[in-house]
Design brief:
This is DUF3576 domain-containing protein. Keywords: Signal. The protein is elongated. It has two domains: 23-67, no CATH class; 74-164, 2-Layer Sandwich (Alpha-D-Glucose-1,6-Bisphosphate, Chain A, domain 4), CATH 3.30.530. 39% of the residues lie in helices and 17% in strands. The protein is α+β, with helices and mostly antiparallel strands. Strands 3-4-5-6 form a four-stranded antiparallel β-sheet, covered by helices on one side. The protein has five helices and six strands.
Length: 166
Amino acid sequence: MFHRPLKTAVILAVSLGLSACGGSKNSSVNVTGAAIDDTYITNNRESAPTNYKKSSIWDVFGPDTSEQTANVNRYLWNASLDVLSFLPVQSVDPYTGVILTGYGTPPGGGRSYRATVHIKDAALDARALNVSLQSKGGPVSPATARAVEDAILSRARQLRIADSKL
């Protein structure tokens, strides 16, 4: 039947394959370096709409109806990138609506800034936009952050008007 080395190789391959399925608890690391465990992901899926849940083995082999849609206003997203184009983009996540930039100096300015933009909603509204600014020289005044938010909102409205004329 089987030769001893072949039988050992088959048993070893099967046991390695099965051990890969077993489990330690997965954890990932976020940007700040803090660990995030699986309970966050599990709780998110449980609170998701019913088309995300797989209740039987037949659902697994059926068509995938769990397309993710981003709840981010595209005009706010594009306006944020446009207004803050002088800053180097470090990270973007269109699914959560977060744009992180590095330090940069605005045209005609002498102070260096970095920004974090969070677009929280699909509405073209001031409540959907949160801009946080920092400078190397110290804190940034709330008036400056408000001016950047206003510039992004104005540009977003311009983009929407231009889009509706097409």
